[in-house]
Write a structure and sequence with these properties.
The complex is a heterodimer. By secondary structure, chain A is α+β, with helices and mostly antiparallel strands. In chain A, 33% of the residues lie in helices and 32% in strands. Classes of the chains: A alpha+beta, B alpha/beta. Bound molecules: flavin-adenine dinucleotide (FAD).
């Protein structure tokens, strides 16, 4: 069964949302999803850019009150 | 009735917690109302930050170790008997030797470890300095190095976010001093789109790298290493040749955490402020093994341990909670063999490092000695 894990990386200056996502995907199975919350706008664009490079899919990206949520599905 | 605090892990965080509670609860320990037990893996305590200096011959191995029983307050019951199964429903831990320890409160402080075996070829083709054996092998490799391509390869997640940059600067100074810098080509790879997770540190490091002639490649997450061809490949599709590969392998938490169903990869889901294990009111998590999205560093372990000491003492004495962790992290950054800077931040204050200076480098060297005082709870 595919799982969805949430990482609340709001206000996380180091290692930051993208690094948390990379670490979480290493432990995930193919098809699992990781929902990363970030209060930094840069990550909201870095995460989809990195996923495009590596081949994971962004299934949802949304802006909320003061933070961004990006849901990534592990593709390989 | 006597209460038991069980601390699993005798590294930095566990040791500070144990000593801190002893200092504040002398009366209860004397009367037998409280007992503190620690489970560890070794009679010796290793100063991990010192590993960075071993490959460059700047610290001797013996300087890294102290007898754990001397670092610990004598009132702590210390067992070199690793936890094998942790049962948070039954409030008990069973050990490798088959003992069972019951607890009223438990502190999980089992740290993190390198896992080069999770990347094909990395164990065979790479060098590292994140454990003693690796640091020794890297010292030999550097002694034998006559020139060629060196890749410093950083993987996520890893503890001590500054060590990779530090090793790059120190390696530059080391090779320069040996007259080998002109025969070497140093490339640094990093998982995200800049040279360091902390934006201001990355901004500072980039021109420093360019000034020194250190090459870099960002968005580089290792897929595999080919020890025969001496190449390293990234998930992003690039490939680098190397003569010497110095890697910071990806980390995981302790096996016992995973085996006990307390967190995938050994990372324990932890409340970011109270440091409770999610779902347990009597289990606290400190140091590298939390899943809190902040730096896995000695200073984090120290600040978390201080909060946990106050909370455990308040809970034992007055059944109240004392205070919350504010996410504070402090790091010294070595910017060469003779200069350094520092940076701090918390959940709400962004980092802002000052300019490097020789004085800060001396502070860091002094801190290397002060570590033992801080583990004893005297700092
Ligand atoms: C090369 C290097 C350089 C570093 N430099 C710095 C620096 O400059 N500044 C900084 O702040 N931090 C630095 N760090 C990081 C710092 O050492 C760690 O973040 C810190 O030690 C974390 O403390 P901890 O108590 O969580 O884990 P540790 O100190 O690693 O302790 C965990 C303990 O738990 C034990 N354990 C594991 N499994 C079990 C079990 N089943 N039962 C019982 N015990 C168990 C382990 O043996 C270990 O003793 C560096 C680390 C390295 C490797």
């Amino acid at each position: 069964m595919a799982e969805r894990q949430k990482i609340d990386a709001r206000g996380a200056f180091c290692p930051g949302p993208l690094m948390e996502l990379i670490a979480a995907l290493k432990l995930a199975s193919i098809g699992d999803e990781v929902d990363v919350w970030s209060s930094d706008k840069g990550s909201a664009s870095d995460i989809p850019a990195w996923c495009a490079k590596v081949g994971h899919s962004v299934v949802e990206a949304s802006e909320h009150d003061g933070y961004w949520s990006v849901v990534v599905r592990k593709a390989k | 009735m006597s209460k038991t605090i069980l601390i699993v892990g005798g590294g930095l965080a566990g040791t500070i917690v144990a000593n801190g509670i002893c200092r504040q609860m002398g009366a209860e320990l004397r009367s037998g109302a409280l007992n503190i037990t620690m489970l560890g893996t070794s009679e010796t305590h290793m100063y991990q930050p010192g590993l960075l200096y071993i490959p460059f011959g700047r610290m001797r191995e013996a300087e890294l170790f102290r007898d754990q029983r001397k670092v610990l307050d004598k009132r702590v019951n210390f067992f070199v008997d690793p936890a094998k199964a942790i049962d948070v429903e039954k409030n008990q831990v069973t050990t490798e030797a088959g003992r069972t320890f019951k607890y009223d409160y438990m502190v999980l402080a089992t740290g993190s470890r390198i896992m080069p075996q999770t990347i094909p070829g990395m164990k065979e083709g790479g060098h590292w300095f994140y454990d003693l054996d690796g640091a020794r092998k890297l010292r030999t490799a550097l002694n034998e190095f006559k020139g060629g391509k060196i890749v410093i390869n950083v993987n996520a997640p890893h503890k001590c976010p500054v060590a990779p940059l530090e090793v790059a600067f120190m390696l530059h100074d080391y090779l320069k001093a040996k007259g080998l810098w002109d025969k070497a080509e140093l490339t640094y790879t990093y998982p995200i789109g800049r040279l360091h997770a902390l934006e201001p540190v990355a901004h500072w490091a980039k021109p420093e790298f360019e000034k020194l002639g250190i090459k870099y490649e960002t968005f580089f997450n290792t897929e595999s290493v080919d020890p025969q061809a001496k190449t390293i490949k990234s998930m992003e599709g690039s490939e680098l040749p190397y003569d010497l590969l110095i890697t910071i392998p990806p980390h995981q938490g302790a096996q016992v955490i995973d085996d006990s169903g307390l967190g995938k990869g050994g990372w324990v889901p932890t409340n970011t402020k109270t440091l409770h294990r999610e779902g347990s009111a009597n289990v606290f998590v400190v140091g590298d093994t939390t899943n809190i999205p902040i730096s896995k560093a000695g200073s984090t372990a120290h600040f978390e341990a201080d909060v946990t000491i106050d909370n455990l003492v308040s809970l034992c004495q007055e059944n109240t909670f004392a205070r919350e962790y504010d996410g504070k992290v402090f790091c010294f950054v070595e910017t060469g063999l003779g200069s350094g800077t520092y940076v701090w931040f918390n959940y709400t204050t962004p980092p802002n490092p000052g300019p490097p200076s020789q004085m800060i480098h001396w502070f860091k060297l002094a801190y290397n000695r002060l570590y033992w005082l801080s583990a004893r709870g005297l700092l």
